[in-house]
Design a protein that fits this description.
The chain has 285 residues and is an alpha/beta fold. 46% of the residues lie in helices and 15% in strands. The protein has a seven-stranded parallel beta sheet with strand order 3-2-1-4-5-6-9, sandwiched between helices. Strands 7-11 form a two-stranded parallel sheet. The protein is globular and about 55 Å long.
């Protein structure tokens, strides 16, 4: 049995799916009862409901579990507390393998959610648990959030400099790497950077979109105040707004560039390119 926390999100569902394909039994930990069906549809054998800050709920979910893949809710101010709860429960349950879903460059204090993940990595080192840490870059799938505007107006909007380069990575590649480190020997004590095949500027992403769609797409900067106004109108919390604005400012100055070698080694093939991702997911039709 493998426990996957944060199982209702796109990361969790992608990892459940590939684990199930590989014949693994997965217990999904979700926040709300209405999320159980999605976890089961992804391939989870069991789905349990609870709050990741609830030590009793997390401890119960870890009973009988061989390995844990820990995903904290996205941009959570409670990441360190949730990490402490998960690690304590894993120790008590005698978990043989604890895999943590971190982020590329958690050392960057200017991005608070990255910095909190580094705090959890420190906790892992001190926990005494057999561990593996994965540090993925931003997903290619995130581009699809703006698909309507890309297709309808020929505009790829980003809230940072269009020359900023990111080593965006295919979530399916990340899920495959996660399944490998959860089920195969030789990965304990490792920290793996998971980056896409080549860093792309936002202009280059727009060019790939243009090529695949067969019509012009241009990258366009969204002013931060406009992004903030929409985020608040959509009900985004204060911490999340402030944290994502800090991330955009960092991307604007520095981008987020990693190396694809480790991911390619884990996959046994080159990481998926952005163009290949668009074709595979039928986004170019």
């Amino acid at each position: 049995m493998i426990l996957l926390t944060g199982a209702a999100g796109k990361t969790g569902r992608a990892i459940i799916h590939i684990l199930a394909e590989r014949g693994q039994t997965v217990r999904a930990f979700v926040r709300r009862a209405e999320q159980m069906a999605a976890a089961r549809e992804a391939g989870a054998a069991e789905a349990v409901v609870g709050d990741l800050r609830d030590a009793d709920a997390v401890g119960e979910a870890m009973q009988g579990v061989r390995a844990v893949y820990h995903v904290c809710p996205n941009v959570s101010p409670d990441e360190a507390t949730i990490g402490q709860v998960a690690l304590a429960a894993a120790r008590t349950a005698g978990v043989e393998r604890f895999v943590y879903h971190s982020v590329l460059h958690p050392q960057v204090e200017a991005m608070p959610h990255h910095w909190l993940k580094l705090r959890v990595e420190e906790l892992i080192f001190a926990s005494g648990l057999p561990f593996t840490i994965l540090q993925p870059c931003a997903y290619m799938q995130n581009v699809l959030a703006n698909w309507g505007q890309i297709v309808g107006a020929g505009v790829y909007p980003v809230p940072y400099r269009i020359g900023a380069r990111l080593s965006i990575v295919d979530l399916d590649d990340v899920a495959a790497a996660a399944a490998t480190v959860l089920t195969e020997p030789g990965h304990l004590g490792a920290i793996y950077e998971l980056a896409g095949p080549a860093p792309l500027s936002q202009v280059e992403i727009a060019a790939v979109l243009s090529q695949q769609l067969g019509r012009p797409v241009r990258a366009e900067v969204v002013p931060l105040d406009a992004w903030e106004q929409r985020a608040r109108a959509g009900g985004m919390g204060e911490y999340q707004v402030a944290t994502l604005l800090a991330m955009f400012r960092y991307y604007d100055r520095h981008g987020l560039v990693g190396n694809p070698t480790v991911l390619g080694w884990l996959l046994g093939r080159p990481p998926t390119t952005f163009a290949e991702f668009l074709v595979r997911d039928n986004q170019a039709s």
